[in-house]
Amino acid sequence: MTEVKAELISVGTELLLGQIVNTNAAWISEQLADKGISVYYHSAVGDNFNRLADVFREAGKRSDLVFITGGLGPTEDDLTREAFQHISGVEIIEDQDTLNKMEAFFAKNNRMMTPNNRKQAHVFKGSKVLHNSVGIAPGIIVDYNHTLWVFMPGVPREMKAIMTEGVLPFLTDTLALNTVIRSRMLHFIGIGESQLEYELRDLISSQTNPTIAPLASEGEVALRLTAKAENNQEAEQLIDQIEIKIKEQVGQYLYGYDNIGIEKKVFELLKQKQLTIASAESLTGGAFASKVVDQGGASAIFNGAAVVYQPFSKISALKMSEELITAYGTVSEQCAEAMALHVKKVYQSKIGISFTGVAGPEELENQPVGTVYISICDASDQHYTEKFQFNGDRQAIRNRAVKKAFELLFYHLKP
Amino acid sequence: MTEVKAELISVGTELLLGQIVNTNAAWISEQLADKGISVYYHSAVGDNFNRLADVFREAGKRSDLVFITGGLGPTEDDLTREAFQHISGVEIIEDQDTLNKMEAFFAKNNRMMTPNNRKQAHVFKGSKVLHNSVGIAPGIIVDYNHTLWVFMPGVPREMKAIMTEGVLPFLTDTLALNTVIRSRMLHFIGIGESQLEYELRDLISSQTNPTIAPLASEGEVALRLTAKAENNQEAEQLIDQIEIKIKEQVGQYLYGYDNIGIEKKVFELLKQKQLTIASAESLTGGAFASKVVDQGGASAIFNGAAVVYQPFSKISALKMSEELITAYGTVSEQCAEAMALHVKKVYQSKIGISFTGVAGPEELENQPVGTVYISICDASDQHYTEKFQFNGDRQAIRNRAVKKAFELLFYHLKP
CDD domains this protein is in (chains A, B) (predicted)? Predict the structure, then answer.
């Protein structure tokens, strides 16, 4: 199969003003990737005749398949058809089926069909008209100058309906797509993006099928392996082979696949081992607990949390000793360990985890912003405590502390 | 002022695969619109040297100001600098300040700085280097062939910091922007978007300067008033005049301006009234507490929270009566009121607030998913309890409950 080069053009001044986010481009791209069609460019352009014509002309030169969304409505602003006619010379005609449908729609809703509405029934001569099951303006596919042009309304719901019901089946038939693309995500924690890439540098640079793409997110990193093949089985085999090589280098940091997150992984490990957990949180303010409760079925492993944001609430809610707090301060290993132990008792869980530190903006107890202690107290009252120095603002420090806790729990719990 | 024509180029194959939505383009566009700078094109292009070079070349021909985000990281995929060098001939040099900062960062975090990291300190000869206050790779501004080129990392948090702290102030100075555009956000809670628009329909449709743009977000709604004028004072006056008319219609729902959120407003009201609060949370799992702690200085008003996710933890951590839970169940007005009262006592706060309900995916105690009780117990032990039926999935229900609590607290506390 020769590769099909696609590009997407989103039409609408509201995109250029930042009033709406271009979710259409991402959604269409994902659908095309699944079909093995490579998207090389996204563009957004306003409702301006000359600029539309320029962008269309450029797209026709470089792509086999051009998707245009938006600018097909009834108002004078809607210029997509006219601009395409201008660059191609393809005639605009009225589609009788669409017109009938529109008239029925307006009659049914007791609304007057204003003359400008007729414009929504305009299509191109020789085009394929795709029914819009959730709105009025149809999709249009037209073959011009060795490029296939696909026009769809910009309203996401209508675009998705036309794409799913009309465009994708049409493309599958027409392009005789016999390549499948499969992806697998490998998730790592405890290793930074640059170190991961460094360890795998030879593999990444020599690899073309599957490709290996590193993706960093807060506190963890993933690799996306994408294989092209003639069928799913072959694609999966290609991915399996490269995964083995990756594991040889960095397997000890791998925690899961595809849509899993470290929070879910820890949840699964706790569940497997029939362990329950409770958290004592100072600077994180319940953010760890909230992440645990994000998991459906959390009650199997989560007993609760004490957000002890004040020194006195550590005493009143967790029955910690005032002497300990006075002697060591709240930002200390001793305080972290006592919090983890006491929350375990008060909430009757097998494991206790605690967070104490300085989220900022000000220092606390002469400790700099970003200082955080995390302590795990296990089923036999053994303590595992670490001190961290996180960067960033208040939110970033709190988020990093929560993420780090899941990392520590993962390494603590994993077989 | 001659019009400045800007365009945005987002670099990254993950955009073209539909793995991420291009929120950067919308955000940058909005900032530029505020400055009176017109954005004519958005593009997204993958990490491919030739295609990057083509897109850069085209942009240089048609725009005065080109923003490029992404492709500045440490890996071999990151080709933005190289592609720009190729089309411009502008030399790449190493920025010593950035390098020093990076070395300090890695040393502080006890991490190895792998050689590929040095690349993040690469800038252009003669460029202005903009400090990245939340990450490593700096922003870069370079003037080449009558176009101003602005390079920023693709990570939204870093891009936003560099844009706000470096790029926008620089553009204001350099372009001597002499039309001012001023915006004011008015935030409302307790009124839906469609009702707000209905109440203000005549005002919104007749208004051109300032414009009135309604913006809905989860559980609240805002109006963005945007005025163009020759100077700030004139713009502010235009906005003041329209604000008065808006307040006549819907002033009772207005809670604040600009960057305030309802969480901050409630924080300020508690602080003004010298009240402290503690929360008892079941389905919300600490999410309310975490939102309170998001505010810097939260310790002035927040004593803590008991995340009592199990019936027995309500008894062990909050000393609630087992009989009450047995008699009424945990998803009940009685349980909600007892939680609010007991958390107030255990955490020694003036106000207690509680959440109990069914986040799903399963029903609980024969109550449907989405049932939530929120109860406020005030300084004189008076209870204010409401029952809600929220729509959506587990996360949506929990988020709505937390937002609703801030709304209830706002109306409870406001003068």
Answer: cinA (cd00885)
